[in-house]
Amino acid sequence: MINPEDEIILDLSTSCTKEVAAAKLLGWMKGPRRLKVIEVTESGISGESLPYYSFEGSLDEQLQELREAAFQELIAAAEEDADFEELEEKHQAYVNAESLIDNAHRYLSDIDLELSKGNDSLIKIDQVKTDCAGVQHVYLSSLDKWAKQQYDISIFEDLKKHLTPEEIESKALENEDDYKLKYDPKGSLSPTRSRTLFTIFGFLVEDYVKRAPNKFGEDEPTVDAISKHIENLAIQACKPKKPPRGLGHENINNYIEEAMTIKKERMPQRKK
Known about the structure:
10 helices, flat, 6 strands, two-stranded antiparallel ribbon, two-stranded antiparallel sheet
């Protein structure tokens, strides 16, 4: 944290590049205050200082340096026969550095996806700064609004509002648990029940084909045609017009093929 006696530099920018946006989502470069003097050790800049540090170079380079520093400390601890607790601490620091890389990539990908929506994007482009700098800049206020909706974090509020790599993973697991609680509260989707569902799905696909033979094929289902049709139905049902995660036609292809395979295994065809 910044102490009253610390010398600071103010950064009152109202927009930033996508790389800086990703860094802010990681909890770095938070708010308008930067430390004028940052302590740099053999291991590099500490994680505690990063929220108040304007790094030079690219985000890639900063993440690479953090990972390399954590790795070297882990190796050094192992070579010095450090006790278990110290080794565990160094290993966790390395794991955290790897997680930061994964999260930064995820944030950058999500930002690009949001910006691809054009005028419908919650993240707004600072066109004046973009034209002046020659690099795309986004307004911080719009980034903050989007981040709250997307991840339930803020680039302006207290550091405690930021999610650590472990918390991001935990939040994803909580969402998965909520899904299971809602759709499978008894944990009853056993392998047998799963195969039964696939078998039922296989029957439905075959019946679907029989009702529209010219469109999907008469004997064997034209898997790609059916999956694209289902994907289109999902797109039409969604706002914005894109299929929910997992309902792209390639995924649907896999489900249909697996359903037909399981159905054939469980329901041998009659001899004619």
